[in-house]
Design goal:
This protein is mostly helical. About 85% of the residues lie in helices and about 0% in strands. The protein is built from 5 helices and no strands. Helix 1 runs antiparallel to helix 2 and helix 2 (about 40-55) packs across helix 3 (about 55-95).
Amino acid sequence: MDDYPALNLFWTMLWFFLWIMWLFLLFKVITDIFRDHSLNGWGKAGWLIFCIVLPFLGVLVYVIARGKSMGQRDVKQAKESEAAFQEYIRKTAGTQGGGGSATDELARLADLKEKGAITAEEFEKAKAKVLS
């Protein structure tokens, strides 16, 4: 270890870290190229060829030219994923027949009956449907 000083180790680790970060950025840009629905096929092919043939320049130019919309697409995808996850939870919790959903439905039906929005017959039919 005497022939490899600490400063050289530091520089090696720094360059390795920068190389890994560049690879992450390259994959992020390539993913964004395919995710962008506003680009047509030729636009996607052009950006992809530019990023493969001249990777450092291609990624740098892509981030400068389309970086803002790249962030907006990330936020949009995160919101869509969250909405889909919340919908899945609502759907799953509603179909499990857990105590909360049937109880809430019965309370809502009782409230409608008290307000006169539904008749006693409609209440009983809906109650039987909820409880079955």
